[in-house]
Write a structure and sequence with these properties.
Keywords: Membrane, Transmembrane, Transmembrane helix. This protein has 4 helices and no strands. With 196 residues, it is mostly helical.
Length: 196
């Protein structure tokens, strides 16, 4: 073999090895990025879900209290002495899980979580009779809560690249519980609350 053929063969082997190395490195990098994204998506999903569960618990307790006060027909009322303790615990759960959403969430989700948290406070205050009284004020607070919950769910699905589903709750103007447009029950600060 002459030297020219050996150089071409050697260059082909080196080029093939370099291409193989580059392709393997790129493939591993893409795989690592995909796994990294999946890990963070799992953490975001957990944070979003925990926050939504804490909000749902607070809403359920508010509805129970509102039923007890005659503001709505709904779930079986929980004894009053038990409900205040459970509502306080739910407030702490909301505060703790909200921090995870703020830390891990996309900006749109954090903004939606802010409004959902605010609407939940309004709902609790209306149920307790602190910010609003009467069935109409309760219905307005409940409609505002439902609207904000729908916005939060939409933002979380978009953040996690989950396709939109048809089971989204209807807007408050189609809500059988209330036909009142989503209006804040009050704009006042809740007395004695440092959780905001």
């Amino acid at each position: 073999m002459d030297v020219g053929t050996q150089i071409i063969t050697l260059a082909s082997v080196v080029t093939g090895g370099a291409i193989s190395l580059i392709a393997t490195t790129m493939s591993e990098r893409i795989k690592w990025k995909r796994e990294h994204h999946a890990r963070w998506a799992d953490r975001r999903l957990e944070a979003y879900r925990n926050f939504a569960q804490a909000i749902s618990l607070s809403s359920a307790l508010s509805r129970s209290l509102a039923t007890d006060r005659g503001l709505m027909n709904g779930p079986f009322p929980i004894p009053l002495e038990e409900i205040e303790e459970r509502m306080l615990q739910a407030d702490y759960e909301i505060a703790a899980t909200y921090e995870s959403v703020r830390l891990l969430g996309a900006n749109t989700v954090v903004n939606a979580a802010d409004m959902l948290r605010y609407s939940t406070w309004e709902l609790c205050d209306a149920a307790r009779g602190l910010s609003a009284t009467g069935e109409q004020k309760w219905n307005a607070a409940y409609a505002f809560y439902r609207d904000q919950r729908a916005i939060y769910y939409t933002a979380t699905r978009l953040s996690l690249n989950i396709p939109d589903i048809e089971k989204t709750p209807p807007p408050s103007d189609q809500n059988p519980v209330s036909r009142t447009p989503g209006v804040r029950a009050s704009g006042e600060e809740r007395p004695g609350s440092d959780l905001r």
